[in-house]
């Protein structure tokens, strides 16, 4: 059962999304903004880009860190078997749990105790003999960067089950989660849990989009599209300046990036990042407009429903 998008293993598209985001942000501050033109235009470009890129960064972490599971899942026997009560236990409770487990093992007989000890020793030996691979090193670096922020955001997520919501929406039993869930919840087979107000499973976030993180996801789409359009426009503007004022531009490139950079590699880097931003903006724009149509459809249906109630 996956709790959020930052739980291992990461999806390849999630790694691609984070890598492209960091590469485009680095390219903007190094290759785009310093060559927009006058100092005033450079400052305006940075002031426009910085709050938007910060918003996308924190919203991405927040959406992936949110656990959109149905509130009933937290009380299911399946969830309790995997994560206990879902909260951090007191050290006394941890010691009590360990002692209870020890008593259970001791009561099962001497044979099972020896098998348990042999299996534990074997697993410890295997873990010591393992050598870290390149993939594991990459995953560790992602954990080092994003886990502190994920921990902050995940602690802010409420896990309350409203009795009024239960009575209004009704309950259904999910045999996979082994618990009763809300009427509009749906079981995600990738995360192996029911999600309240399930919309879809986003592979770029490696997390489900539901009632608890849908609004943040919608704002993330909007800000990401604006960010990519802004970077594409500034990239095209910089390329135009580069071809119109080539001599002056070559001097600026040497003074700001060093003598190892010339006009040709600079144009290749800026053009590649601009094309990448344009290509990335197309699926985001399509997904954003699709969700806008869904929201308008839901709003229109609710408006018609209220009109019918008033007429009755």
Automatic annotation (TrEMBL):
Protein name (Swiss-Prot/TrEMBL): S-acyltransferase
Protein's UniProt keywords contain Acyltransferase: yes
Taxonomic placement: Eukaryota, Viridiplantae, Streptophyta, Embryophyta, Tracheophyta
Ranges that cross the membrane: 12-32, 44-65, 134-153, 217-243, 263-282, 288-309
Localization per record: Membrane
Species this chain originates from: Zizania palustris
Signal peptide: none
Lipoprotein found in the keyword field: no
Any one Pfam family match given in the protein's UniProt record, by short name: DHHC
GO MF assignments: protein-cysteine S-palmitoyltransferase activity
Superkingdom of origin organism: Eukaryota
Domain notes: The DHHC domain is required for palmitoyltransferase activity.
